[in-house]
C-alpha cells in the first residue's frame, strides 16, 4: 500500500473555503450588545440540516490525543447536516479534509487549527474524525440529530496518508 505524506497548512478562511467555515473572532461582523458590554461576532457559520425531522444538536466531544506521526486511513462525511467543532481548552488540533470526486474522496489536505479556531464542515464534506493533539481535549460540537443515515465512511483502498509533524 502506498503511503503519501500530507504537509500541514495554516487554517485560513481562504484555504478552508471549499470545505467549510472558520469560527474565530475577527472574521465576521461585530455587533455591540447588552449595553455595549459584549461583542457579538455575528454569523461566523451556519448550521445546515436537512432530512426527516432534523434537529440541531449541541454536544461536547472529549477526544484523547493522537500521536504523530499518524496515518490517515479513512474519512467520513455527513450528507444530512453540517458539523462544527470549537475547542474548549484552547489546544491546537489537526483538521483533515478531502475533495469529493463523484462520491469518492480524493486529494486530502491537512490543516493546523489553533486553539482559538473552530471549523464548520459543510454538509457532505469528507473529513477525518476529530484529531486532538498533546492531551485529552474537549470540543463544543454542533451537528444534526434526527431520522436518516447521516454518516458515510470511506476507507482508502490503495493508499494511506501520513502526517509526520504539525509544522506549517
UniProtKB/TrEMBL annotation:
GO MF annotation terms: ureidoglycolate hydrolase activity; ureidoglycolate lyase activity
Necessary cofactors: Ni(2+)
Catalytic reaction equation(s): (S)-ureidoglycolate = urea + glyoxylate
Positions in coiled-coil regions: none
Listed EC numbers: 4.3.2.3
Domain of life: Bacteria
Pathway as given in its UniProt record: Nitrogen metabolism; (S)-allantoin degradation
GO biological process, one term: purine nucleobase catabolic process
Alphabetical UniProt keywords: Lyase, Purine metabolism
UniProt cross-references to CDD domains, sorted A to Z: cupin_UAH
Function: Catalyzes the catabolism of the allantoin degradation intermediate (S)-ureidoglycolate, generating urea and glyoxylate. Involved in the utilization of allantoin as nitrogen source.
Entry similarity comment: Belongs to the ureidoglycolate lyase family.
HAMAP family linked: Ureidogly_lyase
Subunit structure: Homodimer.
Protein name: Ureidoglycolate lyase
Source organism per UniProt: Pseudochrobactrum asaccharolyticum
The gene coding this protein: allA
